[in-house]
Predict the structure.
Amino acid sequence: MSNDADISRRDFVRGRLLRTVRAMAGVPTPPPAPQRAAWVPLPIRRPPGAVPEARFLAECTRCNACIQACPVGAITVAPMRFRHAAGTPMIDQATAACVMCPDTPCISACEPGVLRKDRPLKMGTAWVDRSNCLAHRGTLCTTCSERCPVPGALRVDGGKPAIQDATCTGCGVCAQVCPAPINAIAILPLPDRPA
Amino acid sequence: MTTVDRREFIKSAAMSAAVAAAAGSTRAFALPVLTAPGVQWNKAPCRFCGTGCHVLVGVEDGRVVGIQGDLKADVNKGLLCVKGYHVGQILYGKDRLTTPLLRKDGRLVPISWEEAIDTVARRVLKDPKGFAMYGSGQWTIPEGCAGNKFMKGGLSSNHLDGNPRLCMSSAVTGFLSTYGVDEPAGVYDDLDQCDVAIMWGNNMAEMHPVVFSRIVDRRSRGEKVTIIDFGTRRTRTTDHADEFLLFKPNSDLAIANGIAHLLVQNNAYDKDFVARHCNFRQLDPEKPDAMQGKPMTFDEYAAALAEYTPERVEQISGVPADKIRLLAALFARRDIRITSLWCMGMNQHTRGTAINCLVHGIHLLSGHFGKPGDAPTSLTGQPSACGTVREVGTLCHLLPGGRLVANEDHRKHAEGFWNLPEGRINPKPGYHTVLLFEKFCTPTDKGGDIHTLWVQVTNPGQSLPNLHKLFKAKKGLEDKFLIVSDVYPTATTELADLVLPSALWVEKNGMYGNSERRTQQWFKMVDPPGQARDDCWQTIAVARRLFDLGFEGMKNKDAEFLFTFKDKGGKPVPVWDWNHYYDINVDEAFFEEYRPFSKLKQKDLAPYAEYARTRGLRWPVVQQPDGSWRETRWRFSEFDDPYVKKGAGTQFYNSVTKDDKALVWFRPWEPPPEGPDADYPYWLCTGRVLEHWHTGSMTRRVPQLHRAMPAAYVEISSTDAARLGVRSGERVALVSRRGRLELPCWIGGRGDCPEGTVFVPFFDESLLINELTLDAHDPFSKQPDYKKCAVRVERVVTTGAAR
Amino acid sequence: MAISGLVVTMDDAGVASVLAALRADPRITLGPPAGVRQPVVIETAGPAEDDAVWAWLRSIPGVRFVDVAYVHFDQGEEHDHG
């Protein structure tokens, strides 16, 4: 039943600034920020239990076993824009979320062992943009906390969601279910991916 | 701009926003909205619930591109709920119905509008007495006027009923029994001023979130407001409550009687208010079906209550006796203001009329009535349940303005206003919803005398109780014909023989009436897709086809067409021709025809233009000496209601007893018609969730809402889940005497049921919980009980757990 | 850079001490108060610091609520937080 694509948070932040400038000051739209010439490595979100990024890139055989094992189809093949990481498994926050299966079938399926049960399951950290979060703006909403699969990772404090950074695995379920007009949750990647 | 300038600029923008927010009356701030110079913004009430929030709708190039909360609206002051922010997207689901469809050889195939309208007219001609219409509180006021006049004034048939029968009718009978006139005396302003808000089985945080915010926000301003949540399960409302009182299903009558008993026994009732403004009533044991009952004295009333001691009430309800005492003590206080709120919990009840009467009774007995903050207030679930159904009278026993079809004077009024020949209106009430669908789904040779049913703006194939009996049984009955006007394919169109594509919300002009007597108006902003057309036009076009075929009923007293509308020059406009439908404002014409009806019971409405100018006005709206129109907030109260005599203080001028007094009823607690037993050991309660509205046909097509709440589930207590050996997400089967449904369970999620109770929302058309619910209904309001029936829960063994 | 516009709602009794705490922080600018509701603007290096100041505001004794009226983050810095 879905139709329209979401407006990404980043586009929105940029858009809002332009709009604010226009609306409040009546001045012309400022020119867009200059494009960066040099290529900057894109942050990549790996499936849970991934070994350090350098080792992951070196040892992942691109066999797609984890992709096939995922019961919700959250793991995809990194596209070309990820350059040297293209072809490796990733979870694209814009379209999917890891549901934190208790039996971690993706890890069980990983033969080269770049996804490991003895590694932290952390894939990133959720971050609530309070300016877009309905609960923070006076509308009753508790969807993200109810659907968070990690106990204790997303608390509701005075009716408003608060992420517990240490517990949050960055699975992305909260961002997927956020019903705010402009999605209020971003999943921040781990600082070491790319290394 | 330099970096420093820009930073200063952003800082000043941030400061202006914060200053504006700090000065505002609520903690809610309008979300930033995507906008551009070409976007035109216009006001409209939200399409969803009965709260009646106003939104600003942004239109660019013939398409709705933005929605924002309307800061000028009294109701919501710029705030919207999670559904409201997305209301624009309901127009743009991929599967909008865009062409009339007729079932031929089992398949729905496109046909022309001419053929469609002719097909409906021919079904009427087959036998007008067996032709019925079913609408809802989603009808706009003019659409309701058209349907009512078409059926009652044109076909001389009262077989017109609507979804509010399933939703509001017990509130109606409660108001009528108590005050002699429908609809709350109070308004939302009570919520800004009450000291205590009592939720009678009412999950306001999810069902009326914006009104609930109005209460909760007061705490952020440093005000103290106590919220008491009465419920049969914990909900999001409970999270904000100071006191949560869990009661056993159906025992609310015992609790209400227990409070009244203590007020009387402790001599703590408001003697002055009672002496001046109340009479006492009970049902007549010799005529238990008669809603008017028979008088009783105060002493008889006190004696009838005597058995409802706190201990006895505890035994029946499970609510500790001390808590009953605490509630009675609250009502006994004269220094605080108490507002009671309720919705489906009290209305969808086989004793719905009774519990409604009892809650009004507690307020009257304790004098917590008629002062700002002191009010018994029912809320509505549909955007115009009040405006279109209760006021226009689109139910089988009603005529506009609080009139009854069974009353000869009332019929004469209606025949006068509609310019009909005398005797045109049938004195016999038509079939109420449950009976109507029973008659439609019963073979003709077995007494099923409704052969054709035209459904507009609602989805009974999902919302009726006991669906196998009341809807699905239509399948295979060859001579029965179902016509459905809708915007999307639904559970109802699945069995339709003719589907008519309709215009939705701002694709047409409209008027709604919300829970607090506020009449609202909007103008058409965009065109409907494909060949979709206004429901009002559809009704007029069928009427005109019948007129052209010589059907007498479609002529008024002067032998003119029933729906004759003239332009400013006095020339009739052929509005039945779609090309001319918008040549005049048909809504305004219908509304001005309807306005005189509103005077009888002091429900006065202002001219159409006043509603176009404002964010709605609460009736009675009375013209002032300077020509302006003044709305009324507190009805029956001298300080605000112009119809109250000077010096009366409070006057119930529509009084049943004709002495300006209200009725305080005694109604006993009785056991429910179906409760848990050895075979079906659980209570099943059904209801809505925050993200979806009614049967989900609109909200499930909004991607954000669909993702947030994709499918129905069964809420079950962790204790019961452990006993059954199921975990969250695993499937269980619910089985009632009427049906069986498999669905995933959710433990410790949105709400929390006590042991022995399960809850299932009804928004999901792929998991129809109403196949299990009971069609037992209140004897007076005919409203079914969706909140209580018996089921058993079975573990479903599957190979892989569904997530 | 992060700039946010907030409303700090205080207990009646806590107004003086809360305001003193707010004035002591150079990152905070105070606007004209409306009763117990104090508009403030916070200017910090990025979202992480903005979050930290917000959390700190909520922890000050006498503060009942901190509501967000406006947030601006400069691009490219939002991933610093992680």
Observations:
- The helical segments of chain C are 15-23, 47-59.
- Residues 26 and 73 of chain C are 19 Å apart (CA to CA).
